[in-house]
Amino acid sequence: MITGHAFIATSLDGFIARSDGDIAWLLERDNPDEDHGYDAFIADIDIILMGRGTFDKMRATRPWVYSRPVVVMSSTMTQSDLPDDLVEKVRVANNTPEEAMHMLEIEGHRKVYVDGGLLIQSFIRAGLITEMVITSVPVLLGEGRRLFGKVAADISLRHEGTKSFPSGLVQSHYRIEA
């Protein structure tokens, strides 16, 4: 059975980026000496579904930081829009969350990292996220792009654990209860 997983950071007041998409506030507080568990998380992932906005932020990063295949979910981007050096590592799909997960399951994928705020929101609304690791950064932004959007009904979470780091980051692991 295929499952969706989120691993994301948010300001203490629930924003994943400023209104203009800027995440400098996050990068300047990320202590490279702290192990926030990303490597262990990604080691258990088969493929990454990435939102267009997240891809646009990462597309020029070299070397390419992702060790797993990436599928960019976009209704406006095509495969020909990819930089030449990413054609073998990234593909573009225009699917609903349900269609994307079905496609990946048919391909044999089992654990999918869903990356990007709007994409995570759409997968949560579709009931396709199984677990979330959310790192709270000790900063208040006041406004910006929220991690969570509107939902039709309450979504119950089961707390699996919380870690705190010397930098002040606090990371909580949740399972979504079906």
What does this structure look like?
The chain has 178 residues and is an alpha/beta fold. The protein has helices spanning 24-27, 38-43, 52-58, 97-106, 117-125, and strands at residues 3-11, 15-17, 47-51, 70-73, 90-93, 111-115, 129-137, 145-146, 157-164, 170-176. The strands form two sheets. It has an eight-stranded mixed beta sheet. 27% of the residues are buried.
Mean pLDDT: 96
Number of strands: 10
* Main β-sheet, spatial strand arrangement: 5-4-3-6-1-7-10-9
Query: How far do the termini sit from each other?
Result: 15 Å
Structural class: alpha/beta
What is the strand content? 25-35%
SSE order, one letter for each helix or strand: EEHHEHEEHEHEEEE
Quaternary arrangement of the chains shown?
Answer: single chain
Which percent bin holds the helix content? 10-25%
Q: Output the radius of gyration.
A: 16 Å
The largest sheet is: 8 strands, mixed
Runs with pLDDT <50, length 5+? none
Describe the global form: globular
* DSSP summary: helix tally: 5
